[in-house]
Structure formats: structure tokens, C-alpha cells
Give the backbone structure.
Amino acid sequence: MEGQEALEDVQATKFRLIYVIVIAEVSSAHRPQNGERWFSRRGVTAVFNPGSDIADNASAREVPATFGRSERRPDPAWEFGFAAFLRDSQPKEQLMDLFGRCRAGESAVDAMMRRVLMHALCGRVGDGLQVGPNVVLKHPETMEFGDCVFIGAQTVIQGRFDGVCKIGSHVWIGPQAYFDARDLVLEDYVGWGPGAKVLGSVHTGIPNTEPIIATGLVIKPVTVGFGADIGMNASILPGVHIGAHAIVGAGAVVTHDVPDYAVASGVPARVVRDRREA
């Protein structure tokens, strides 16, 4: 017990020292001027000028993009060999079971196994795929992924046995996203905010004497163009096309096409401006 307590004391002292160093570095990065006060927590600094609106004085900074400017790096050859061996030697059901076993893990080995198994399960997977914990795939054999794709934790990609799902290169998908991926295309450099969703199908509701979920299902293609950005918790409905370089605001419900370079927001979403206009 005494040895354990001593170890805990050493660890606590180390963490306190790290905290002091971080605060010292943050505080030296900005010297308040003209009556300003700085507030720092967890490495984020905000600067306030007493008597002014806080929102107008919160410190903001621009840093270079990281994921969007990352370069393709070929995966190790042995990973492709391992994936090919698994694909040729194991039935799909066994591969899905293996994917389930390493789904929740956060270790480097778990992440590597998710990547390898997606190479074995999917129609195509490029280099540099990153798959977060608890990602769910239905009918992965219908899915294609480009290079340098990031899939955030708890994302669900719901395919169909005769469907098509194509996700381009350098696509970033935030945590808890949902894709009805029965006829879906995300072109290169799409940003998909956390919790954003796409619905690609709808029940006819005919005849109206039947439960709606018992009526026919109409599948409509959904396409998100090159370089578009979909905000957090937005919803894209069946048949919608989002144009290249367009922005969909957080929480928007998109029921109609969004033109190239347009900014759309609201429920239902409406185009509020063109990004090419000042």
C-alpha cells in the first residue's frame, strides 16, 4: 500500500507540473493589453476586454489545415497481403465477426485491423484509411473508399445488397454520422460534420391503409459534390444533390438541390448567399 501511495503521489506531482508548464506557455503567448484580461482552460485562451461584448473579444486564430492538406502515403504492402489472405480464406460472415471483435478497441492494433478488414470486405479501399471505434457497416461489399478517408467514431454506413456507395479521397466524416448509402456518392474533399445524416430512401405510404413501413421503398440517389462541407447535425433528404464547394449549415434539413458554391441553412434549408459574391 505504501508503495502504491508513493507512486500515486509521484504521478500527481507530474501532472501538476505539466499543468503549470502548459498554463505558463499559454499565458506567454498573449500579453493582455489596454485593460484586457486573459482566461485559459485546457489549452484554449480567450481574451476579454472589460466593458465590451464577450463574443466580440473572444480570441480567435487561424491555423493551417491538417487533414485536408494531407498527402497520400501508401499503406504497407503486407497489409494488402493480409487483407487478400483474409478475403480469400474466410467467408464474409467470419470477416464481419472479426470486424465486430475489433470494432470498439482504441489501440493502434485495433485501428490497423479495422483498416485491413475493410480492405478485405469492401469493393475498394484506398491508402490511408482511418476508421474510428464503433463504426458500423452494412453491406460493405457495395462500398468504395478513396485515399486518405477518415471515418469518425460511431458512424453508421447502411448499404444495400444491390446498392452503390462511393466515397472519394480526402473525405472527412465526423463522429456519429449516419449514411443511408443505398445510392450515395461523396466526391473528393467533402467535409461531413459530426452527427450529420443522409436519407436516401422513403416509403410510398400507398396504400394508406397499410403501415407506412410495410409499403414500397423508393430509393433516390444522393450526391455531395467536390469540396462541399456539411454542417454538424444537418440532414440531407432523398434525391438531393449538393453542389461543389457548397456549404450546408449546422442543423439544416436539405430537401432540394443546393447549387455550386451556395451557402444553405435553416429548416427547410434555403440558399442564403453565393460564396463567390462579396
User: Anything to note?
Assistant: The chain has five helices and 24 strands. The radius of gyration is 24 Å.
